[in-house]
Amino acid sequence: MSNPQVETVTTSADKVKLGGAVVLLAAALVAYYALAAQGALAQWGALLVLMGASVAAFFTSESGKSLIAYGRDSLREVRKVVWPTRKEATQMTGYVFAFVVVMALFLWLTDKTLEWVLYDLILGWKR
């Protein structure tokens, strides 16, 4: 099964939409700080309206449409996943916990054995 490369052609209209989205986002930030004297309601209103317009402009571009398609495909794949039952999840968690304890004991014993061999037997350093 081959995965062909998909080339997207970016049109000038698409570039204008993305540029407009960036300009609207910058305008939202400028308006938020410029309307500080008008009160919090005017600040937040301008910020939310201009950010909403920026998001809308982005989602009308090809990049936005492909992002929406990617999200839909991701949700479709998540629905296909077979999730474990509570019992299976609990058992697997127990197995992992037991494995971690066994490995911790093994590494501790290995460390103490090597310490004993190197320092006590070979070097003769008694503590």
Automatic annotation (TrEMBL):
**Would I find Transport among this entry's keywords?**
yes
Provide the Gene Ontology terms for cellular component: plasma membrane
Annotated GO MF terms: protein transmembrane transporter activity
Record-level GO BP terms: intracellular protein transmembrane transport; protein secretion; protein targeting; protein transport by the Sec complex
Which domain of life does the UniProt lineage start with?
Bacteria
Alphabetically sorted, this entry's keywords are: Cell membrane, Membrane, Protein transport, Translocation, Transmembrane, Transmembrane helix, Transport
Write down the Pfam families for this protein, in alphabetical order: SecE (PF00584)
According to the record, the segments passing through the membrane are: 18-35, 41-59, 92-110
Where is this gene product found? Membrane
Against HAMAP family, the record matches this protein to:
SecE
What does this gene product do? Essential subunit of the Sec protein translocation channel SecYEG. Clamps together the 2 halves of SecY. May contact the channel plug during translocation.
Describe its assembly: Component of the Sec protein translocase complex. Heterotrimer consisting of SecY, SecE and SecG subunits. The heterotrimers can form oligomers, although 1 heterotrimer is thought to be able to translocate proteins. Interacts with the ribosome. Interacts with SecDF, and other proteins may be involved. Interacts with SecA.
Q: Which family does it belong to?
A: Belongs to the SecE/SEC61-gamma family.
Q: What is this protein called?
A: Protein translocase subunit SecE
* Higher taxonomy: Bacteria, Pseudomonadati, Pseudomonadota, Betaproteobacteria, Burkholderiales
> Quick one: which gene encodes this?
secE
